[in-house]
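Researcher: Next entry: Phosphate-binding protein (Planomicrobium stackebrandtii).
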Amino acid sequence: MRNWKFAMASTILGSALILGACGGTEESTDTGTNTEGTSSDTAGEEAAVEGSVAGDGSSTVAPIMEGIVEEYAGAQPDVQVTVGVSGTGGGFEKFIQGETDFSNASRPIKEEEAASLEEAGIEYTEFQLAYDGLSIVVSQENDWVEDLTVEDLKKLWVEDGTTKKWSDINPEWPDEDVVFYAPGTDSGTFDYFNEVILEEEDLVSSATLSEDDNTLVQGIQADPNAIGFFGYAYYVANQDTLKVVTIDGVEPNDETIESGEYSPLSRPLFTYASNAALAENDAAYDFMQYTLENAGAMAQAVGYVSLPQENYDQALADLEALKE
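Model: Predicted structure:
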């Protein structure tokens, strides 16, 4: 496996990124340097598969999928895999329309989305891929913020008709306007923050919103008065220019995210797969099997936290049952 944690630069994902795995194309890469934890080093022993697979969804999950898609190209070069990055909500819209075989999500599926899938006659299976710790970050030029409480976050981020200043949180901090960056409203990260921090109140109206986490990274890097949030892997990939803020004294890291100590901002990451695609499309089944076999190693490689191995084993058993 490539050293994905360092390969993830701030330009990993464009707003219209399509991830492709196709033998003989420029998107294919040499995966002969795999390390322990992936199965593409046994590609020569695997049955060849042909076909195409399409997915879409969360930009938070995208670093995991980007790595898996590239590694999978070495295992099955005759399978074309495309993965869009429309945000969790946008991905589910395409899934409901039957445009994709799987949908990546940084939150659980909503009741109304599940109802729409049922109405469309699409049965699906939920697979957990990894843990994430939604990270609150500022520029490294910000030399006053080290820790915020959950109540501080709510005071900062909830729209109350006032101009937010750093001195509102601590009178010793600068009397400067806070500049906000946040994922777009189609993002599962936005939904999660809305639920656990905003508690369904309106997000501050001055925030710059984007479905592309790299836009958020670049905006925060450039402004010492900026603050924003996104998945832990994007902080890890840009930690030389960003500073993560501890929440109630707890820093996001592998241990605090997996244990849940980094609360309430620890969360699982998912992909939702069409049962019909898995049962009828050999390429979709093979790609999902490869994903579940390698999600833990890739999650760690790009900066997220892997699930316990028994979780992946159970997911693979659930996948196999769909073929029966």
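Model: Note for the record: The longest strand covers residues 124-133.
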